[in-house]
Amino acid sequence: MIRNIVFDMGGVLIRFDRDFFMERLGVSEEDKRLLMREVFLAPEWVMMDRGILTDRQAGEIMCARIPERLHEAVWKLVTFWDRPILEIEGMYELVEEVKGLGYGVYLLSNASIRQHDYWPRVPASRFFDGTLVSADVKLVKPMPEIYEKLLSTFDLDRDECFFIDDSTANVEAALYVGMHGTVFFEDMTRLRGELRRAGVPVKE
Questions:
Q1: pTM for the predicted model, two decimal places
Q2: 46-49-50-51 Cα dihedral, nearest 10 degrees
Q3: Residue 204 belongs to some domain of the structure
Q4: Of 76, 132, 141, 188, which has the most beta carbons under 10 Å away?
Q5: Count of structural domains, the chain
Q6: Residues 136-173 pLDDT 10s
Q7: Residue 202 covered by a domain
């Protein structure tokens, strides 16, 4: 029986759209490609999530690789992508609903240490019983160890947890360690249907 719903953050609770963030900068298409490669697709981004680098350290390394005229853009992408917080439509209502039904609500997110600064600004954060952020534990999804860390930290039974993430690899890893779950494709009707099939009586 499912007793706990575990949510990813970016791409599930809030929008994390690299192309959208890039569009806000107003730079050329060539510069967008450069910034995508040297910021979002750079190893330093993963190292922030893993807690190896701070946002400032990562930004300085990124800036060293690109023209100075784009340094301000780098800092906006690294430290201000969350302003404003953009919610995924319908997700706040779903979190509120499952919380009201008596389910435990938890967060498992790949994010840098700065997540603690902006998490309170995520409207649905008020419903969460616990959060586990990758940078805090030096582990990242889809490493099985981070799911085991979540379960041990909050004393959760893996067979009672339903995990929602926008990454197929991350959901597969949750299934691998014995949790239940589904990939979120920004389709709330499908997600609610998957929850109902798992025995969680959410509305259609």
A1: 0.95
A2: 120
A3: no
A4: 141
A5: 2
A6: 999 999 999 999 999 999 999 999 999 999 999 999 99
A7: no
